[in-house]
Write a structure and sequence with these properties.
The protein is an alpha/beta fold and 243 residues long. The protein is built from ten helices and ten strands. The strands form two sheets. A six-stranded mixed sheet has the order 6-7-8-3-9-10, with helices on both faces.
Length: 243
Amino acid sequence: MLLSIENLAVSYGAIAALRGVSVKVERGRIVTLIGANGAGKSTLLRAISGLVRARSGSLSYDTASNGSPANISIANCTPHELVRHGIVHVPEGRGIFANLSVAENLRLGAYLRNDADEIAKDTERGLNLFPRLRERLRQSAGTLSGGEQQMLAIARGLMARPRLLLLDEPSLGLAPRLVQQIFETIVRINEEGTTILLVEQNAHMALRTAHYAYCLETGTIALEGPARELAERDEVKKAYLGG
């Protein structure tokens, strides 16, 4: 198991955002978290990536690239330490550097690396995944469309060569055509070897894309199971799929 979360609790002051959440992310899979606004989905990603601290519970991560498991606790790791371990977070809102060019944003994604030839290869990979960015390399990132900014945010995240990619609402605010394109690219990234933990309000697309799914309700796991099976459950259809 690449990532194991057990009984995680996170609070913002007196408000409990997560209460005893347990999630497992198997290596090589796409796992999705669905749920309403305020359910705790983004908080869970922020806890994994070290942006908020857990009040209790455990976060275990397998640092071994192959062979026997080498599990470590990442509960007290800083965000840059987690990047070194291969965990990269693409946040809601994209978090691009608006005054820098597309090329400069991509270079910043590789800020912990010094292997110039491999960085060039990964830049080319990102541009192949998102051809629109190739046409806009010298353009200020703040002038890109919302869809292009999302492409840049994901491509920049890939520059760190993540083993685990945390994606927070990648389809938020995008036109349906672009949503389809983003999800097709997410599948391609996974097929090329990157494990993905996906937070997504578009439950239709999330459950169609992921291998396994968790449904969060008010800070707790209400349901879990194989994504396609969860999509067929009446309570999920009623709450999230308009059925």
